[in-house]
Design a protein that fits this description.
Strand order of the largest sheet: 10-9-8-7-11-6-12-14-13
Distance between the termini: 27 Å
Largest sheet: 9 strands, mixed
Radius of gyration: 22 Å
Strand content: 15-25%
Number of strands: 14
Oligomer: single chain
């Protein structure tokens, strides 16, 4: 049984429908309920630049010919109070005569951060906050991470044999897992703001890294870590209409011009070792409004991300097979002792086709 009012549970269900659609805005749902308990209108946040959940719900009520004055707005996140791509939702609720707002949690965006609630209360609207907060936070981990930590939520996806091998020694990996797992992996791609890979994967596999095996209201952006700007201009990852960011450690004007001519943006961010500064890259991606970063890379880049403490979550598909000698999930270490291992917390273990899907989170990474 839901531990919060059922209209708010309905709003949370609507918010989930915004997954993969509302980026970079949070996934928000809203349900308007009259004094007699009748649902007057409902909706979720649309594409960036489109209406937010509250506006969709108000328009839904209007399309039904239902008056909302004195109604309660159940919304999963604090109504915004600033002018961004759209106008303030709190003003729309005030103007519509809403009598009460029940919200799950405060918007972590510094441009909002309680100001929406303040304006609602100043207009005489009763505001209640807290029901469903954990669910809203979980649904919007990427948005909260970007707003609070200044970095995206980093999810490391791997497909491996039961003995932890992601490829043969020569790099061949197609296909370790089955069709169902591959389709499920595309669904996780679809929910991300951007997909990240390394130059090794680009040169070895020439992947597209788009969403083809699942429904996708938008294609995620693509990020390539390419220290020496070796990405071939003829690579298949150049797709019309998709933003592509290539992070390098050294600049090569000719290669940069060739890649930019294909539509990529090249960002040079070296660290002291002559590699791409990965923490700086994450901060830069947050500034570019990336909420969830879905990593599909080789064991070297995976290892670098783990070693620098940048991975928040692991999405692992394990096949019922043994490969023996081959490439592993992530190359880092050696560790001085077993208690220095990265601590993970299993979030779910499910069978997908013939394979297992494990979602494991780095302990304490979601405490923000």
């Amino acid at each position: 049984m839901d531990q919060f009012p059922s209209p708010l549970a309905q709003a949370l269900a609507l918010a989930r429908l915004a997954t993969g659609l509302s980026e970079p805005n949070p996934r928000v749902g809203c349900v308007l309920v009259g004094p007699d308990g009748q649902v007057l209108g409902a909706g979720h946040t649309q594409r960036a630049g489109g209406p937010h959940a509250e506006i969709v719900a108000l328009r839904d009520a209007g399309a039904r010919g239902l008056a909302v004055r004195g109604a309660t707005a159940f919304v999963t996140l604090e109504p915004c109070s600033h002018h961004g791509r759209t106008g303030p939702c709190c003003d729309a609720l005030i103007g519509a005569g809403i009598g009460r707002v029940v919200a799950s949690c405060t918007d972590p965006n510094p441009l909002v951060a309680g100001r929406g609630f303040e304006r609602l209360r100043a207009a005489g609207i009763d505001v209640q906050v807290g029901a469903g907060a954990d669910e809203t936070h979980e649904l919007n981990l990427g948005f909260f991470s970007r707003m609070v930590r200044g970095t995206p939520w980093v999810r490391l996806k791997v497909a491996a044999s039961l003995d932890g091998k992601t490829a043969l020694d020569d790099g061949r990996s197609q296909w370790i897992t089955g069709e169902a797992a591959r389709a499920d992996g595309h669904a996780w791609r679809a929910r991300a703001t951007a997909v990240l890979t390394g130059i090794g994967t680009v040169l070895q596999d020439d992947p597209r890294l788009d969403v083809r095996l699942a429904e996708a209201p938008r294609q995620p952006d693509l990020v390539v870590v390419d220290s020496r700007l070796e990405t071939p201009p003829a690579a298949r990852l150049f797709l019309p209409g998709r933003r592509l960011w290539i992070y390098a450690a050294v600049d090569d004007p000719q290669r940069r011009a060739e890649l930019q001519a294909r539509g990529a943006e090249v960002i040079v961010l070296p660290n002291a070792s002559g590699k791409v500064d990965l923490p700086a890259m994450l901060r830069d991606l947050a500034a570019r409004e990336v909420n969830e970063l879905h990593v599909e890379a080789g064991f070297k880049l995976n290892g670098s991300l783990v070693r620098e403490g940048l991975v928040d979550e692991v999405l692992a598909y394990l096949a019922p097979s043994l490969i023996g000698q081959g490439q592993g999930v992530a190359s880092f270490g050696p560790l001085p002792a077993l208690d220095a291992a990265v601590p993970l917390v299993f979030r779910s273990v499910e069978r997908v086709g013939d394979d297992l899907r494990i979602v494991a989170r780095v302990a304490g990474r979601d405490a923000f």
